[in-house]
Design goal:
This protein has helices at 2-32, 37-57, 61-69, 89-95, 165-173, 178-185; strands spanning 78-85, 99-100, 104-110, 113-120, 123-136, 142-153, 157-160, 190-197, 201-206, 211-217. The protein has 221 residues and is α+β, with helices and mostly antiparallel strands. The protein has an eight-stranded antiparallel barrel with strand order 1-3-4-5-6-8-9-10, surrounded by five helices. α1 runs antiparallel to α2 and α5 (165-173) runs antiparallel to α6 (178-185). It is globular and about 55 Å long. The termini are far apart. 34% of the residues are buried.
Length: 221
């Protein structure tokens, strides 16, 4: 019995150490945008596998990830700036990996509300707003499903969106996955397979298959 406990503890410690190593690379990438792109992708792949195992081993881990990702107050949401993305699988086939994201794109999560904004400096060109759900499964997967029901243009004009319209706009503009359009046809919502979130970075795999890294930032107005 003692041997089993020792082996279990050692395995847990090894997973935590590997998680910290992957996050260390990703934190540097988020701060400097100077880490080698292939190294960043490998760290994301490693973290994806490790966090799934962590979620299976620790029943509280998924709740901790959600608490770090999203605040409980929709008026004071947690904000995340997109730093690095491989792009969707289709985008990678057409243009290769995007890697460090050149545009200021910020997502916020608060009290089951999600917002995705595209900025020039501090000025928002577009803001998509809607709601999200969080689910955690026994296989270690944690998922954010969402839909946008409003778009704000130039921080002034609000346009209400019908279910699925945001998916079409995202696919046509290149800001969203074409897979989201197909999901909408099947009556399903867009999603991220969420990997991790803490007080510095967040990571996820989009419904189109691309990996992404965000940096925690101050709330965007």
């Amino acid at each position: 019995r003692t041997t089993r406990l020792f082996l279990s503890k050692t395995s847990t410690e090894a997973i935590d150490e590997s998680i910290n190593e992957a996050k260390s690379i990703l934190c540097r990438a988020a701060e400097t945008k100077a880490e080698n792109s292939d190294t960043v992708v490998q760290a994301l792949l490693d973290l994806e596998k490790l966090m799934r195992q962590k979620n299976r081993d620790d029943s509280q881990q998924a709740d901790r990830t959600l608490q770090a990702l999203s605040s409980s107050d929709s008026d004071a949401p947690n904000s995340w700036r997109l730093v690095f993305t491989t792009g969707t699988i289709n985008t990678q086939k057409r243009s290769g990996r995007i890697n460090y994201f050149p545009i200021k794109a910020v997502q916020t999560f608060g009290d089951a509300k999600i917002q995705n904004g595209i900025y020039v400096g501090d000025f928002p060109l577009l803001k998509f707003s809607g709601d999200f759900d969080w689910t955690a499964s026994k296989n270690g997967m944690t998922k954010v499903t969402f839909d946008f029901d409003k778009i704000q243009i130039l921080n002034t004009f609000d346009v209400q969106l019908k279910a699925g319209e945001a998916a079409n706009l995202g696919a046509k503009s290149g800001l969203g996955s074409e897979n989201n359009v197909e999901l909408n046809r099947k009556g399903k919502r867009a999603f991220f397979n969420w990997i991790s979130a803490d007080d510095q970075i967040a990571t996820a795999r989009g419904g189109g298959g691309g990996l992404a890294l965000w940096k925690r930032v101050e709330e965007e107005q």
